[in-house]
């Protein structure tokens, strides 16, 4: 889970000129607020997925992005979900010996622990970057005698080389998240929620 927020609309008595217009025992309903959150969350997920797609490796980060809303009475809870490593992809990681310019201000840095080899090996397999060796078969040599290539071994060797490179050089920041989830987007949600709350409140007393 990346963030969680809660909107709590408290029931109460509202009166105009001494005449009660909202029953304090009747929960208010906020369908417009719910619709605003649905649209905002859907746009957020789409924009994040498209942004992540530009830096796609295995596709797991893109598939992990989700937005959930829970409505309990007058309370709305909404949460954005991403794989935990999104922050390394977004802000980058400084390397043991050097760093990319885009990652110079990243709070993350490799020190005495290398990146996980298993994840890199999976990425290598996804990209299909295992080299193919070609061998010439002698006419006098049976095809069955030619040694088979070990693609597993080749892939592990490449993954290990990439692991060392990442450890020493770091990971270049992509900004895929920061470009999408920013103060302007949050402010837009605040403004839309204020308008939606006002509409629902007026509808409840008319």
Tell me about this structure.
This protein has 206 residues and is of the alpha+beta class. It is built from six helices and seven strands. Strands 1-5-4 form a three-stranded antiparallel β-sheet, with helices on one face. Strands 2-3 form a two-stranded antiparallel ribbon. The model is unreliable at 8-17 and 144-151 (pLDDT under 50).
| Spatial strand order of the main sheet | 1-5-4
Query: How many strands appear in the DSSP assignment?
Result: 7
Overall helicity? 40-55%
Shape: elongated
Series of H and E elements = EEEHHEEHEHHEH
The low-confidence parts are 8-17, 144-151
Class from helix and strand fractions = alpha+beta
Count of DSSP H/I helices: 6
Roughly what fraction of the amino acids lie in strands?
15-25%
Describe the sheet with the most strands: 3 strands, antiparallel
